[in-house]
Amino acid sequence: MARFAGRVERAGYGLVLSPMFEDVGVFERVGEGTDVVRKEMYDFEDKGGRHLALRPEGTASVVRAYVQHRPRPPFKAWYVAPNFRYERPQAGRFRQHHQVGVEALGTDDADLDVEVVALAWSVCRDLGLTRVDLLLNSLGDDACRPAYLDLLRSYLAERVDLLCDEHSSRALDNPLRVLDCKRPACREATADAPQMLEHLCEPCRAHFDRVLAGLRALAVPVRLEPRLVRGLDYYTRTTFELAASALDSAQNAVGGGGRYDKLAEALGGPPTTGIGFGMGIERLLLACDAEGVFPVPEGAVEVYIVDTTDGAAAILVTAELREAGIGADRAFDRRSMKAQFKQADRSGARLAVVVGEREAAAATVTLRDMRSGDQEVVPRADLVDHVRKRLS
Ligand code: HAM
User: Fold this and answer.
1) Would the pLDDT of 167 be above 90?
2) Whose alpha carbon is nearest atom 17 of ligand 1?
3) Nearest-CA neighbor of 246 among 238, 258, 254?
4) Which residues pair with 82 in a beta bridge?
5) Distance (Å) of CA 9 to CA 1, 36, 78, 100, 336
6) Which of 57, 133, 284 has the most ligand 1 atoms within 8 A of CB, as the residue to mutate?
7) Whose CA is nearest to atom 10 of ligand 1?
8) Reported pTM
9) Which tens digit of pLDDT belongs to each residue from 256-272?
10) Measured in angstroms, how far is the CA atom of residue 278 from the centroid of ligand 1?
11) Strands 223-224 and 253-259, how do they pair?
12) How far is CA 149 from its chain centroid?
């Protein structure tokens, strides 16, 4: 989390906290034809008769907040938040899951797509994941997608009987979803289906080419996946997913995102383009586990205070070090020196500051290097300077 926050904040994204539930209409805009809206929404009526829903995903809330508060574009936000989807719980698919993500609104510059996709990719790299594929596609826009959908519908109409049970009845309502279907019947029946990437209009093609060129320049390895559709309706142009091959293929998406250039308008705002991604924290952890790269968090505690007087010195020393920007922790309950050193060890601190009767009487403290065991007695008044020198 801290590493994610650091990375995206260095790229100019600020933290946004959105409510856990909102008017159901906000989330219905993510797609009336999607499972997330049709089947999985936790919606309810409150005491005032309002129809509300628990947040199923983060994008709609951020865009709603943008439309409501109109910050100056480009508006770049990040979040970490629980999301709720009513589905059959199984490995990697939960009714409550958590996402970290970013949303960037107010420019359709393809270089922003490059930034966002590369950020998502670097999250996996930061965790030490190596078996993750970055799948990329373009879903076109209002200029080119309708004609493509007609083409796809005619193609599917001739093969309806060959599709899986779910899609043989719904194929023509949402033909893109059929391409995304993992069942063998749909896969075989659509093996040579027309692809959006081959029917992009000129501006969408140019946009996509620039995204590809930018990602190549950054050495972000991309796999074109013309079948990548994603489970939400708001996407336009760039769409992407991060698939962990160490996970079972049904639940192997550790993250996904894309452009949603029409969503702000659908939520009653001015035309405002946007792009973002969300990554499932639980899935990322499962992928780390499967790859055996579980990240050991870097401890924020640099100094541990061992106070064998009455603990009063520890109050002052921890406060002084923390004020100076140094991570410091201490033992409680007036435990023995041995027990406190054990805790110091477990905290991962590099230095221990020891305050015993002798030090207290002489207005000194003892600094002990927790790795080498080296000790040095220094004046209490110069503590911060000495600690800084040893930590640098
Ligand atoms: P999504 O693909 O629905 O996209 O979810 C993003 C990620 O959340 C998935 O790749 C997966 O890792 C995780 N996830 C989703 N559902 C579950 C679940 N039931 N249990 C565990 N993990 C889950 C979105 O939500 C979009 N808002 C992403 C986005 C942001 N697009 C543009 N901006």
Assistant:
1) no
2) 93
3) 254
4) 98
5) 12, 30, 8, 13, 42
6) 57
7) 255
8) 0.89
9) 999 999 999 999 999 99
10) 5
11) unpaired
12) 31
